[in-house]
Specification:
By secondary structure, the protein is α+β, with helices and mostly antiparallel strands. It is 63% helix and 13% strand. Helix 6 runs antiparallel to helix 7 (250-270) and helix 7 packs antiparallel against helix 8. It is rod-shaped and about 135 Å long.
Amino acid sequence: MVNSMTGFATRSQQGSDFSWSWELRGVNGKGLDLRLRLPEWIGGLEQALRTELNKALVRGNVSLSLRLQRSRSDGQMRLDSTQLSQVLSALSAITREAERAGVELKAPTTAEILSMKGIADDPNSLSDGELVALRSKLVADFRPLLDSFIEMRATEGAALHAVMLAHLDKVAKLVREARPVAEERKAEMAASLKENLARVLENAKGLDQDRVAQEVALLALKSDVTEELDRLEAHVTASRDLLASADAVGRKLDFLCQEFNREANTLCSKAQAVELTRIGLDLKAAIDQMREQVQNIE
């Protein structure tokens, strides 16, 4: 069963320390293009999530965003008493030395002292161990989000599968309609060519009749559309086989649609009959509709 490249999934979690929300979107693309918007201060998170996405997806423009905020903080600034005592002693010594040298110093403010390294800890800062634990929680929570995203792509793919089979049935039906028309036209073309050949031979002197007959036969062969119809049927069979595959087949189906279109164009150019031209145009329309759907298949 084919997968669509279109998908969407969201997920939110509320924890005792952090709350977060995910959003994962996907649209069609030629290859796999991943765009992640994550908190940069959680080291290793982006690489871990990229690995998961690369293992699960083959094609599509995929964007992932994570909003993370602290759920609870006591708001209390933790002071390092030992470090504070050392800093204050150093400031006192500096002040005394400045006075002896006759230098007037401006006393530092409380905020300036607190901003000195090692005196106070940010209540929202995390230790290395806490960061590792948070990253592990986020990676574990991402997997259900990815599963939901893949499930939606599979649901969209099932719909695309049905639509593609309907288009292929229509193409096959048009090819079947074209065969008796082509056979009837072939007989008419042969009769017309024979009549024209006889007229040419009657009014031409010195022409090699065998050569003229060969050229007329070549024209008849070039106007035959049997090969185009055979190839169209072969493309229908190949497309159905691809749709039954478990692999990502979007690129191959896109290539087959180009081949479908090539044969339909040749059929129209050779038609020289109203009914066969109509069938050729209907084929082109069905193939265009099919190719639009193929653009969304992974």
